[in-house]
Amino acid sequence: MTAMSGRQLHKFGGSSLADPACYLRVVAILREYSGANDLVVVSAAGKTTNQLIEWVSQLEKDGRQAHETLQAIRAFQQQLIESLLDGETADALLTQLHFELGELARWGESPLSEAQVASVLGHGEVWSARLLATLLTQQQLPATSVDSRLFLRAERAAQPEVDRGQSWPLLQEQLAQHNQYRVVITGFMARNQAGDTVLLGRNGSDYSATVIGALADVTRVTIWSDVAGVYSADPRKVEDACLLPLLRLDEASELARLAAPVLHSRTLQPVAQSAIDLTLRCSHEPESGSTRVERVLASGRGAKIITSLDDVCLIALTIPRSHDIALVEAELERILSRAQLQPLAQSVEADKGRIQLAYTGEVVNSVLALLQDSGVAAELRLRDGFSLVAAVGAGVVSNAIHCYGFYQQLKGQPVEFMAESRSGLSLVAVLRKADTDRLLPRIHQSLFQAQKRIGLVLCGKGNIGSRWLSLYDSQRVALEKRHGMSFTLIGVVDSSRLWIDLAGIEPQKALDHFDDVAQAYQPGAWIDTLAAHDYDDVIVLDVTASAELSARYPQIAEAGLHLISANKVAGSASGEQYHAVIDAFAKNSRLWLYNATVGAGLPVNHTVRDLSESGDVIIALSGIFSGTLSWLFQQYDGSIPFSQLVELAWQQGLTEPDPRHDLDGSDVMRKLVILARESGLDLEPEQVKVESLVPISLAELSIDAFFEQATELDELLLERLVKAKKEDKVLRYVARLDRHGKAAVGVEALPVEHALANLLPCDNIFAIESRWYRENPLVIRGPGAGRDVTAGALLSDINRLAGML
């Protein structure tokens, strides 16, 4: 049997199964993110394995304490079952649990063999797998539990390795028996040739997850834990640590080799030897981000991660002067490589005849015993009480700035030795009794806080601008953590005045203090002022509808500034003007993003562009492109005059500052032109047939005069509404474009059951017909107007632009 296409494996650690709420969260995750044939590997719930280790230890010391520990284990497991299951299902699992605990108690009456101890410690995984599979089935997600000892084969060793040749056919047999079931598998355990349980060592569940994934030929292994992935430092110790969405496999392996808690070296071995994609995610907040381990070895430019480790021990080898230290070093490398026990760091002092090897306290005794038995020509001494800090990243050892910053922060520290990894992927310092909790943030700040400083300039402080200021103020910290950059508001500009302060403007004060601080400026002068900034990059946000400002877009690019637009004028200008803007930004290597110009926060521009760039051909675009006109015509049933609805929409901020820019169809026309260009068509604005709802007599009036005489709008539309009602139709303002460039926007009478007739007020709908979506158009629907969604679209483009930087 071969694994089904697209099968994935999900691994859940003990913290993801710590209580009944966690189990239910895991069920929700599997409902959302897994398929019917997916595999699930689980650790023991909560601290169960630690409690079992404690019970084994207490058996020889204090029988009463051992009994109490076993009862605590019983109570915890029983409470999980009773909280999550009911009726006969719960009774069946409780009966199994009590039988197994009774068997453990009987084993405890006599000294336990090594094989029995391993079997005892594996019970937590058995209980987790059985409970989760039963709960999934109860929640209409058919599942079954499988003991990994039925198919994983490994022999006992300091770091047991799964024998894949023996394990593969046994796993295929198990999978063949459970088609269309989620198979919940115990982690941490295998079985040897004698039939005894073999534990796969520290964090063996993660290793068993990736090795099972490789054996089952899954496409992806997702390790769900209590963190979202790999950060630039431990976020519990460094407040401004940022999540790394992508990490190279060699960097991940180096981080794991240095015993970082989020990754483990043996976990990555099956990934490196297969086509598996590995993703790390947080089970407590599934949408909080993730880290994907990439199987690439491209050149790197420096450190990405600062990591630390306490409980480090040194094995000091003193070599007699009669021996060649280089030969002893080579012999050590051979012995340790064969046993897969390479040190965290190594120091060779040829003049002193001394080699020092750094290991975690967990494995150092095994290494010491190995070296004592090997007959290596050296006197061995174990030293404890050390810590380790390291900077990890491809190219770190050749990055002069990062090396200098790392060494500078270690001045005055009790450094035992420093080393560069042979791979060039890490700088490591081993220290005596150092306070790594205080040292880590300093190194992190020294290396990474010199990253990009981004200045932001807001053009337009009306409805959308004021809402963006509020949103930016609430999201700034998250924005900076996400990208590892600082973002500072350095300017607010309106049609005649500006406030520029390169030291920074507090967003919540920008509007209140603008009138007191702002100064008049000559057209375009503010762009020249910003050209002298000392930020790494400056982003201008244009939330106006100004033709004058859009005409200065090339000047913005030439000043070295990036641009994010909600202003539609440039994107829908003549082809000559539009391409002049495109060329200016390309020539100056600046970025221009404008997703907010169409559909507010809806991902319309991205989708149309991606389809076109992916080889698809857009055949037609249609829909309701104006949230304002959507709202007006959804409300317009004749009970309230159309002119009154327009004024109400204007008061609620649903229209452009001048509502005639919505009513005359120019706003919809501009969006259609922008989308046409995103789809690869060279559509000119004058090619679009536009029906205006603004009488010529109202076109040139002031806004106040317009509203005073707006009843003229009612006469134009009432007759069409009455006619539509007679035909059981409704009026909607629709945009249409075909691949031949035929384009029109205007009022149409549509059947009441038509898709375009049944939207929520303010909703936009975009129907995209293409070669790939000919029979069933791709539809994007949602709020297309309003200050909140437009402000959100601007922030989305800032995120996107920051990622591109």
Describe this structure in words.
- There is one protein chain.
- The chain is α/β, with parallel strands linked by helices.
- 41% of the residues lie in helices and 21% in strands.
- The protein contains 30 helices and 29 strands.
- The protein has an 8-stranded mixed β-sheet with strand order 3-4-2-1-7-9-10-8, sandwiched between helices. Strands 20-19-18-17-21-22-23 form a 7-stranded mixed β-sheet.
- A hairpin with a 4-residue loop joins strand 12 and strand 13.
- Helix 8 runs parallel beside helix 10 (265-272), helix 13 packs antiparallel against helix 14 (436-448) and helix 23 (627-635) crosses helix 24.
- The longest helix is centred in the N-terminal third of the chain and has 22 residues, at 63-84.
- Residues 1-5 have low confidence and may be disordered.
Sequence-ordered SSE layout with sheet pairings:
Blueprint: E1 8-12, H1 20-33, E2 39-42, H2 48-59, H3 63-84, H4 87-107, H5 114-121, H6 123-138, E3 143-146, H7 164-177, E4 182-186, E5 189-191, E6 197-199, H8 204-215, E7 220-225, E8 246-248, H9 249-257, H10 265-272, E9 277-282, E10 290-294, E11 305-318, H11 325-338, E12 345-349, E13 354-360, H12 364-374, E14 379-392, H13 400-409, E15 415-420, E16 426-432, H14 436-448, E17 453-459, H15 463-483, E18 486-493, E19 497-500, H16 507-510, H17 514-517, E20 519-520, H18 525-530, E21 537-542, H19 547-550, H20 553-558, E22 562-565, H21 575-587, E23 592-593, H22 604-613, E24 618-624, H23 627-635, H24 642-651, H25 660-663, H26 666-678, E25 688-690, H27 696-699, H28 703-708, H29 711-726, E26 729-738, E27 743-751, E28 763-770, E29 778-783, H30 787-804
Parallel strand pairs: 1-2, 1-7, 2-4, 3-4, 7-9, 8-10, 17-18, 17-21, 21-22, 22-23, 25-27
Antiparallel strand pairs: 5-6, 9-10, 11-13, 11-14, 12-13, 14-16, 15-16, 18-19, 19-20, 24-26, 24-28, 26-27, 28-29
Helix pairs in contact: 2-3, 3-4, 8-10, 9-10, 13-14, 15-30, 23-24
